[in-house]
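User: Teach me something about this protein's shape.
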Amino acid sequence: MAEVVLFHHARGLTPGVGQFADSLRSAGHVVHTPDLFDGILPASLDAGLALVRELGDELDARADRAVDALPDAVVYAGFSVGESLAQRLAQTRPGARGALLYESCIPVTGEWAFGPWPDGVPVQVHGADGDEFFAEDLPAAQGLIEAAGPDLAELFLYPAEGHLFTDSSLPTYDAGAAALVLARSREFLARLG
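Assistant: First, the predicted structure itself:
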């Protein structure tokens, strides 16, 4: 089974993120869920993004410390703001087994890029059609899928509304879409052996 590090979104390590991680664990995977906000659960997405801005480079440093003791061969996963941490580590920390990128995506070329997508690293990107934030990232996701290649990369769009539709503890949760995200994520991890 796979070992996964799952980074939370800007609302913090919510019960919904924990439930998602538990669902992956129930399939036999080892899932680490570092709390990069030290227990803070921002009351809104705006408050969470303000905390992310306040933390600045410290957020990246906390993510780096969270994986320091882990083996190189892990799957990096993350929701929204946590996606950018997962993607950065998948692209820059040698040995990544794969990446699960939820509700966000960073370009693999241009000024925001972390560099090219690493050869041989499989990736799935999941986003909602009705998510204004993901709509901005969709070209980046399509570029990543093209760069990684059809044998290694998949992009899934869901008929869900709003951002953070995968978090069962938030009002934007879409149970049907989130169940499909989880099923596809579990299939992806199972393929990694």
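Now, about its shape. The chain has six helices and six strands. The first helix runs from residue 15 to 25. If you'd like, I can walk through any region in more detail.
User: That's plenty for now, thanks!
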